[in-house]
Amino acid sequence: VQTIGILTSGGDAPGMNAALRAVARTAWARGIDVKGIYRGYSGLLNDEIFDMQKEFTCDIISRGGTALFTARCEEFKQLEYQEKAAEILRSHNIDGLVVIGGDGSFRGAQKLSAQGINTVALPGTIDLDIACTEYTIGFDTAVNTAMQAIDKIRDSSTSHERCSIIEVMGRNAGYIALWCGIASGAEDILIPERFDGNRPKLENELIESILEKKALGKKHHLIINAEGVGHSYGMAKRIEQATGVETRASILGHMQRGGNPTAKDRVYASYMGALAVDLLCSGATNRVVGYRNGQYIDYDIEDALGMAKDVDQYEFEIAQILGR
Ligand code: ADP
């Protein structure tokens, strides 16, 4: 490999900067040139490509977001744009590409690999919704950010003896909600993986749970709701009507995507970035880096996208026991 390109794609996640910094610095240490590509596949198609210098990687490890910006690019799903992108990469002599993003971005990486560009992807998403890995860049920071916000809402919720429904991110995955639920001592945790779509049933269960815990003398009732279950405001209204307990909903929103990455996100992202470069050096392509059983590993992208994972049932049951 002579020149490695780097892009960040899809939703941003704290730790992406640590990853791209590690990619660049490892490449330089191996005698490889580095080019930055702005705005994901969209920037790639617009030829927003620059020679990355050392300064670009300075003072970014501690920052959230991504210094390369990120974008979604619908047209990149079409073959003609994938061919065009490969041509643009070749015109810059980029013979290795590192893509940092989620499942959608991996599909793009796979398509570029099919166009003859050696490509390695890194799992960057706060949602932890990538099946081949137990760790994704940004999850740890997002959980800590949400937990701190929940702690604050909890204080106020206790003072007013309220019920609080706090909605956290995660798209169709409940990992952020499960972790926040345990870490914040929530009474109830709602995750899409354990929701059958029957909202009246879910609300009746919550109403029962609130009345039961109120009778036990609990001063507040904290419900962590995952984005994939949603409808927090409507739920709050109906719960208040049914229980007579003042109930408020807060949707934490984009604050969960930002902020300085935790040590874990910085360190794991750094190792993953370095590994991506070393995989490219060994001639690998169409790979995605993951972390499993205490080790950094890599998979064929097709295999990785074909994997499935689910919230651990034991963990979910314990979370419920601890909230009682
Ligand atoms: P994430 O990478 O976080 O999952 P998206 O699903 O939005 O985010 O995907 C990011 C980008 O990856 C998309 O905007 C698109 O450019 C590219 N992408 C997604 N799916 C495909 C696909 N099937 N083929 C090619 N590119 C894709």
**Which whole number gives the mean pLDDT?**
97
The major beta sheet can be summarized as: 7 strands, mixed
Distance between the terminal alpha carbons, to the nearest Å? 56 Å
Taking strands numbered 1, 2, ... along the chain, how are they ordered across the largest sheet? 3-2-1-4-5-10-11
Question: What would you note in describing this structure?
Answer:
- The chain is α/β, with parallel strands linked by helices and about 325 residues long.
- Helices cover about 45% and strands about 20% of the residues.
- It is elongated.
- Adenosine-5'-diphosphate binds near residues 11, 72, 108 and 111.
- Adenosine-5'-diphosphate binds near residues 9, 76, 101 and 102.
Summary keywords:
single chain, 324 residues, alpha/beta, 7-stranded mixed sheet, 4-stranded parallel sheet, 11 helices, 11 strands, binds adenosine-5'-diphosphate
Q: What's the layout of helices and strands?
A:
Blueprint: E1 3-8, H1 16-29, E2 33-37, H2 40-45, E3 49-51, H3 79-91, E4 96-101, H4 103-114, E5 118-123, H5 139-159, E6 163-168, H6 175-184, E7 188-190, H7 199-215, E8 221-226, H8 232-243, E9 247-251, H9 263-281, E10 287-292, E11 295-300, H10 301-306, H11 313-322
Parallel strand pairs: 1-2, 1-4, 4-5, 5-10, 6-8, 6-9, 7-8
Antiparallel strand pairs: 2-3, 10-11
Helix pairs in contact: 1-9, 5-6, 7-8
GO cellular component, one term: 6-phosphofructokinase complex
Subcellular location: Cytoplasm
Domain Phosphofructokinase: 4-280
